[in-house]
Design a protein that fits this description.
The chain is an alpha+beta fold. It folds into three domains: 1-135, no CATH class; 148-258, no CATH class; 300-404, Arc Repressor Mutant, subunit A. It contains 13 helices and twelve strands.
Length: 409
Amino acid sequence: MNQCPMCGDALPDRAVFCPACAKQARCKVCRDILEPNARACVSCGTAVVEGPASPVSEQPYPSAAINVLHFKEDRRGRALNFSFTDAAMTTVGETLVYALDNRLMPRDGRGVQRGVHNKAQLALPLAEAAADLKPAGGLSSEIQTEQKAQGLAGAADQELLREVFHQEGTVLQLDEPRLKADSKFDYARRLALLFVYAHEQDGRTQVSRADLNIVLQKVLDSNSRKFLRTHSGFEREGELYRLNKQGRDEAKAALKRIFDIAVDGPGWMPDGRGKAAKEDADSKSTSHLAGKRGRKQSPKPKEWAQKWKVGHASIDGHSLLERRNNADKGVFALWAVSKVATEDGKVVSEHLLSKFLLEAFIFKVDSRTLGRALASNRAKGKALKVSGGFQLQPPGTKWAQDLVAGKSV
């Protein structure tokens, strides 16, 4: 058995193309073995990658792919559509094996991501130029723009979901319980949809019912169980759940509501207090502090913000932090305070830091959420939790300076 001149693998006697590297290994006319990287057969002069009657000079090299395979994958299954010339008939079987590899094998228990169409458009290696995969006819600019927009939206949602859940091993844990829900049932509904959506954004399109029961344990009752059994936003395969378009849209709306500063309050919480009770308790607490004790909100955040705007007008903090997580926002705020405050800025409480973020950079981040973010691994080494709040560390100073300088951090 001969060897492929391109890769050295075994070349079947009937093969024109190598089944290992998919490059043309024999002349189509005289069947002689080609020289490595040859543009024409040294025996008869027939051009590589061209038809038998095409001399080298008649067509520029390389030629466009004329043997194209389309592979489409969606929630219903997989489909093949391919076209090829008569010259490719001798090796089309080997080529299909090479091109598809294991694409048609069933996936693992997670299944195919519902609602997402994965199209692989592969050029069969009859022409060496077909190694650059491209769709037949190309995509319209409108479709390309839509795909880019969907990709950006997905990336933004993934970042927001990391503020709601944190991962422990392979399990997602709820990190932000304030979902701004209207009731216990609404809380369970939002949490279930967000939980499955977070897994989907992490590449795990299916979630087990057991995992859903765990994350919903504080609100799991007959209503929420019925919701899991019957809601049309889920697609169920036994004990595995995934979102369809309706469920995904509902999850996106719930995620947007959490971070919408126009929606006040944490909403219904699983601590037994409803939305009205929570707001009433907050109102009484504020009244108690302002009335009986005579305490007023500290003016420091506004003073710091004013000094920052005057002294650092060239730094657009809002744009720098717009796509950053809460830990990054907190570290940057600590650095900004250290630039404008005196001794008061060495240790800053999460409450004052939250107010400063709003005054200086127009980001509304709850103080408890900000405190948890600064105490998490994301801010490790950059900020240190001490008595009275948080203290900026040298790595945090360098990180903020690099961010302002436009470096990738």
